[in-house]
Amino acid sequence: IKTSYTHNDYIQLSAEYGLIGLVLFLFFVITLFARFDRFSARIGSGDYIFSLALISGMAFILICSFFNFPLFSMPSAALFFICAGLLYAVPGTPEPAGSETPLRASTLVFLAAALLSLGALALNIKPISANFYSGQAVKENLINSPMAGAYYLRALEINKKDFAAAAGAGLHFFYKNDTEKSIKGFMPALDIYPYSADILYNLGVINKSLGESGRAEKYLLKSLELHPNNALALLNLGRLYIDTGRDNEGAGLIAQALRLNPAVSGTGHITKVLEFKETTYDITGN
Prior knowledge:
Layout: H1 9-39, H2 45-64, H3 74-89, H4 105-123, H5 125-142, H6 147-158, H7 163-175, H8 179-192, H9 197-209, H10 213-226, H11 231-243, H12 247-260
Helix pairs in contact: 2-3, 5-6, 5-7, 6-7, 7-8, 8-9, 9-10, 10-11, 11-12
């Protein structure tokens, strides 16, 4: 996912404008809804239905903002503020001076929905926070910034089940030739999803470069169990066998790799990391 957004507009608002910006936005929304609730009894039937349609559209965008970034996308953001402007412009008879309006049922419903939303946010604060750091890491990676690794590790520290952060950390440090930290990224990724042929392949070639022949063989064989036609895995396993005195087996695997993909003939021991089929972003930048 090549994006600098957190897929949560409230977190994004806090990150870009601080808590004051978030509070001001929520104050604007709550004030607008409270104004409608206050004057709803004095709005004509036609305008009332129109107002409910506007509120429904705004509410949909606000709920969607917990899982996406519609307020940072021009079409949906424009729609939201157009609805807000039209809702504010709906005519209503002003209250007589000194009169008091009792708390309406719609106000209670709104408050209950707000409490539920805050509860959902509190329950998901860890993955949301980790997602923010992962998004920053991807952004930093695109400009080859050394901060990307720190962001990936921070995301993984917050949410140890974040596969994208773990895999991203492994790849980042792999390309920085920091094999120790690369393994520390790939291993949690493998714990989260043990059926990733690509992660297994990466661990295999890294251990091969470190001279850990036994571990390298184990990971490469597991990778080939899941993806038998992986030419790079066959090539590296063949070279490993030749390096450890199993020339015939190694030559057979290398020949098989070349039949599957002749282009791997010029590939070194560790010159390429496969793209993750389980994730949705291009981790090689191609």
